[in-house]
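[INFO] parsing input record for Bifunctional diguanylate cyclase/phosphodiesterase
[DEBUG] input buffer:
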Amino acid sequence: RAKAAGGNRYEVADPDSDARAITRHGLTNRLPTALERGEFFIEYQPLIRLADGSVQGAEALVRWCHPLHGVLGPDQFIPLAESTGQIVPLGRWVLQESARQAREWQRRSADGLPVRVNVNLSPCQLYHPGLVDEVAAVLEETGLDPTALCLEVTESALIGADEDALKPLRRLVDLGVDIALDDFGTGYSNLSSLRWLPISNLKLDRAFTRGIRQHPADPVDLKIVEGIVSLAHTLGLTVTVEGVETRTQAEHLGLLGCDTAQGWYYARPGPPDHLHTLTLADAMSA
Ligand code: C2E
Ligand code: MG
Ligand code: MG
Ligand code: MG
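[DEBUG] output buffer:
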């Protein structure tokens, strides 16, 4: 195929791309059966309320334990799953498993209150006709409170979306599910779209918080984040910051009024029990 031949030309100059080509080939063959073989698993990364440091919930991040290549991150196989359509069954599984897990956290929590779980939706899932019914079925089967589920969609998935295309999202909101706009600021951020998109949470991409990792923080970056937070709050949206890696960042972002934060400073993505431990520690220190 032309594409493969094009790839071969670069292999000579770049051994890395050779490795990637082989890997990609191996992945393409394996992907369709990986789900039934039980090769996917989910790691959860806590979302922290900046006001009091408590755990609000966690984002579900899928991984593939490949028999030859070891644990692969989503960036290594989600694009492939999207181009083959495998993302629809895979995404359905992530949703089911995350909802079941969130319900389990709730069962084991001291106060019995719902624990929130964030699940990423790819554009293919968003525009798949069965989405709303699937989400409704998962909520029904697991008994998860709809307000404990937040679906993350990227800005780029919504580019050019008209009223018709937004219908599934509006129906999800009607179910009580929250929608977050993920990786905000990395695409063509259309600020006026924040007015009419059916979202309740803005996730600021870590590109924004890079400049405030160390003292002294970049004053322009601080101003930009401050401006976005103020705009979001005016529009009734909460703001989550991604990729918080240092105490400096956490302090600045709290002062700038961000609502929740996620990042290595608090916790890396990890197994489900990890969150339970954090929540317990949280409850004990409260
Ligand atoms: P995302 O939704 O923006 O998720 C955040 C990514 O940032 C995760 O990468 C997470 O591990 C990473 N991260 C978190 N804290 C830090 C930090 O402090 N520093 C740095 N440098 N990185 C941090 P991950 O797990 O590799 O996921 C990458 C992307 O893959 C996600 O970006 C999301 O768009 C996509 N993805 C993950 N799981 C799923 C899924 O189940 N379905 C779909 N459609 N996409 C998924
Ligand atoms: Mg996300
Ligand atoms: Mg994100
Ligand atoms: Mg991101």
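[INFO] The longest helix spans residues 87-108.
[INFO] shutting down worker
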